[in-house]
Design goal:
There is one protein chain. The model has no long low-confidence stretch (mean pLDDT 81). Helices cover 32% and strands 0% of the residues. It has 5 helices and no strands. The longest helix has 19 residues, at 2-20. It is mainly alpha-helical and 189 residues long.
């Protein structure tokens, strides 16, 4: 009995270690070594970059199981002003990131590709502006907004998002009848 309890405790600790692992020296390497993919958008933030960008090697995010990296992706999402177009995932100028309808694909490789190469209808090309490792962290965070990651890995929502039903989706409250005004003695009608 005690051996089983110890084995289960060790297994839980080992699985928890990956969830909170912080990789400061080994960036994720899931992209091509050379910049071979052409940009799909001429829109670029800050100084325009020329040439090609790196493409994903495999359609898996190296940070989907890592809560720390997903939180870093949340921070970077704001730093690079992704919320300027996509808001907090609900969409704005850019498409919503919280639903399941993705024009260019919602898998990790497609999201990485959209960020790095841009898209013809408005999405700027961030290749050369954001390091690939940080792009993979943003990919993990974007996937968490759509519920594609485990709940214990996804970051908590910002205070600005209301977790309940939107106001327009709530049932109307019953109308409370107004009391008739009682006349004040001596007042003009």
């Amino acid at each position: 009995m005690t051996k089983w309890a110890i084995a289960i405790a060790i297994a839980l600790l080992a699985s928890g270690c990956e969830r909170e692992a912080r990789r400061f020296d080994v960036p994720a390497k899931n992209q091509t070594p050379a910049e071979t993919a052409p940009r799909m958008s001429s829109n670029q933030p800050a100084i325009a970059q020329q040439g090609n960008v790196r493409a994903p090697l495999r359609s898996e995010s190296p940070y989907d199981e890592n809560a720390y990296a997903v939180n870093q992706g949340k921070r970077l999402y704001r730093w690079y002003n992704c919320n300027g177009c996509h808001s907090m995932g609900g969409g704005g100028i850019g498409p919503a990131l919280m639903d399941s309808q993705w024009k260019y694909g919602g898998d990790p490789a497609s999201i990485f590709d959209s960020i790095m190469r841009g898209r013809p209808e408005g999405m700027p090309s961030f290749g050369g502006h954001i390091p690939e490792d940080q792009v993979w962290q943003i990919v993990a965070y974007v996937r968490s907004m759509g519920g594609q990651l485990r709940k214990d890995v996804a970051p908590s929502r910002a205070d600005t998002l209301y977790p309940g039903n939107p106001e327009n989706a709530r049932p109307k409250e019953a109308q409370v009848p107004q009391k008739a005004e009682t006349p004040v003695p001596g007042a003009r009608p």
